[in-house]
Amino acid sequence: EGLREMVGSWYIHPDRHVVEYIAFVTISSIIIRTLLPTLSKYPAKKAFNLNPPLFMKIATLFIYVCQIAYKVNGYPGKVLFMAMPCNILWTMWT
Q: How do residues 6-22 score in pLDDT, each as one tens digit?
């Protein structure tokens, strides 16, 4: 079918992605929970402005949709890379 056996030598096995995702999220959560009380606080009177502007939300959604379209139209199984930690962040922000 014209598919290559190795798409790139830097890809790691999906099982390892799952393990790394769980490990990184756990370690990051512990670090954030530890450091959060020591960080300076954002003024409560400005808390209503913490949402990103509309154009940024639209741009994020557009880039996310383009990324999904690219992965769906790639080789079989490429869309599964949306479960990688870097792509999970896109999903969370969209």
A: 555 556 677 877 888 88
